[in-house]
Task: inverse folding
């Protein structure tokens, strides 16, 4: 019998690969096994059957990392082609798929325009940005036109991990990278990089000017566990005043992607509130079936499970 919550399940961090864009990733994606690449490339019957078998009603599709964030030459035109093709994929199963845009962050003004085109003309629900853009954290003011446009369109930006900066890999991970290549990726490096970006966004002053909504995967990249200590440290004397906890809690939602842990989820509920937690799998890097089965048995009431399964997504993504 299918184990899933007794409500629709919308999964938010579900990846695919556009052939033209994915072909540019050579060497960047060395740890992805061929059977996962095959699943990234499939957006047809096999993917839908896998969703059915797991009890996932809707996947919000996004390109796999690093998407367009390491591409400069021709990025604006490539983004249009990639997003147009994603819209065609969504149109093949409009009740099962939705889309997050890929943005050409190399040109922030053009990226903002592409976000608007994707939301207003293609019906996308927001966008996903993967890690550093051209080696730079995107809290830099040159990227703020993207955040201003997301605010105006009232759509969230999903901040997805990507490879750490080469200098960080060299200083922190290089002795272990050969034997443990996932250490600098999903096992630890991605978490540090993405949590650092979220902290920098709060400290940047962005939220004094823009009410932009962000989503973090992987149960908030560790930040819900650490928020008390971060807030406490930043409140010590001799620093610029910042209401870290309030700003983070007001502007960030988190998903369950690749992180099906009861104690970690319950901590997130206590720190963030049930309305800020959304379901995701991180398909195909994680298998679909364990996600809804886990959500069905987590020690929360049915009303709270329904919010995580799809209620919060319907509100945040206006689905
Ligand atoms: Zn992912």
Result:
């Amino acid at each position: 019998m299918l184990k899933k919550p007794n409500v629709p399940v919308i999964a938010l961090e579900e990846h695919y690969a556009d052939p033209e864009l994915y072909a540019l990733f050579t060497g960047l994606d060395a740890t992805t096994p061929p059977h996962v690449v095959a699943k990234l490339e499939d957006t047809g019957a096999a993917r839908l059957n896998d969703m059915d078998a797991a009890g996932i009603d809707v996947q919000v599709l996004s390109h796999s990392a690093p998407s367009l964030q390491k591409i400069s030459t021709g990025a604006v035109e490539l983004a249009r082609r990639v997003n147009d093709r994603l819209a065609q994929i969504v149109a093949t199963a409009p009740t099962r798929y939705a889309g997050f845009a890929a943005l050409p962050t190399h040109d922030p003004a053009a990226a903002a325009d592409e976000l608007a085109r994707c939301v207003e003309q293609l019906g996308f629900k927001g966008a996903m940005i993967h890690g550093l853009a051209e080696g730079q954290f995107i809290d830099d003011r040159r990227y703020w036109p993207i955040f201003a446009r997301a605010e105006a369109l009232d759509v969230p930006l999903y901040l997805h991990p990507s490879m750490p900066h080469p200098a960080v890999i060299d200083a922190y991970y290089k002795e272990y990278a050969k034997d443990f290549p996932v250490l600098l990726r999903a096992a630890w490096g991605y978490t540090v990089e993405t949590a650092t970006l979220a902290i920098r966004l709060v400290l940047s002053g962005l939220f004094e000017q823009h009410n932009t909504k962000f989503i973090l995967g992987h149960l908030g990249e560790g930040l819900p566990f650490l928020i008390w200590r971060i807030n406490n440290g930043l409140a010590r004397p001799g620093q610029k005043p910042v209401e870290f906890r309030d700003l983070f809690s007001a502007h960030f939602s988190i998903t369950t992607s690749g992180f099906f842990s009861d104690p970690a989820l319950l901590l997130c509920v206590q720190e963030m509130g049930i309305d800020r937690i959304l379901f995701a799998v991180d398909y195909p890097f994680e298998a679909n079936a364990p996600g809804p089965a886990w959500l069905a048995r987590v020690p929360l009431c049915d009303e709270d499970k329904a919010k995580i399964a799809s209620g919060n997504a319907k509100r945040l993504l206006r689905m």
